[in-house]
What we know:
Layout: H1 5-16, H2 42-51, H3 54-58, H4 77-94, H5 99-108, H6 117-127, H7 134-145, H8 156-163, H9 174-197, H10 208-214, H11 218-233, H12 243-261, H13 264-267, H14 270-286, H15 293-300, H16 305-314, H17 318-329
Helix pairs in contact: 2-5, 4-5, 4-9, 4-11, 5-8, 5-9, 6-14, 7-8, 8-9, 9-11, 9-12, 10-12, 14-16, 14-17, 15-16
Amino acid sequence: MQSNIRTMLEEREHRMLRPCAAHSDESLGRLREEEQCDIRTVFQRDRDRIIHSKSFRRLKDKTQVFLTPEGDHYRTRMTHTLEVSQIARSISKALLLNEDLTEAIALGHDLGHTPFGHAGERALNRVCPLGFSHNEQSVRVVSVLEKDGAGLNLTREVIDGIREHQASGHPFTLEGNVIRFADRFAYVNHDIDDAIRGQIIRESDIPTELTSLLGHSLKERLNTLVHDIVIHSQDREEIVMSAEIAESFDALRTYMFKNVYTNPVAKGQEAKAERLVEHLYEYYTENVGKLPEEFQRMIAAGEKKEQVVADYVAGMTDKFAVATYEDLMIPKAWGVY
Length: 337
């Protein structure tokens, strides 16, 4: 008789996880009912579907913060996602939360990000009359765009965590709230690391009142932040930081916005990137017949043209966006030899 490993895993969750954690067998389910897997829980299946998706693979060629940096060690949207996942899993495991749900949300949280990072997001939000935000687009990717319009049919817990992953979000699971913190911990600290590598700032430039409390390196700061959130969330049904560490971390983010995220040396190419994204959006809204066939079928089926064009442009990698722009906008030499 075939054993049901999934049931054993679900029973183990009830023995090992906190009562306030999300339990796989108590999931709110999927939009479309499916037969259960015999060896994986619903959240493990969600994680696997995201990893095997085309949108996940494209993250490796999408900007995190620095556009087209010269060097192999700068973060991309893919490496950012993996770092968020690692931090979030460490927190969830220590707090006896559902690590599989945490990982699935982390891996999917940025699937809807545009080429050129937040510069591309700003451009699409400006020119698309429907507006654009990468968290809502990430939900659209997993719910509609993947698998030729069928979507990945993820659980409601994962979709909610993806939609609400920003600092202002309100996920209904503790695991989703872990991602809100892990995302910020990851990007602030790895952006410091990249900015130091790019000689935009030095570690010694960070105010000493912040480094003395948070740490003097990426490793020390992440260790401080993760320990603080675990210690102060351990006996509570919410994810919280101590007031002192939270205030210092907010000040560190403010320092980064002033000295890196708006630094003309680091961000000097963003205006060009924004104009490129705007031109691509405008071209395809005026020439929908030039869209790939699957996107033309979406419009024929009743989807709004503006949304479908935003879907196509947002899905581009940096390199593909540049190559497409050059193909559409830059005259080519012609001649008979």
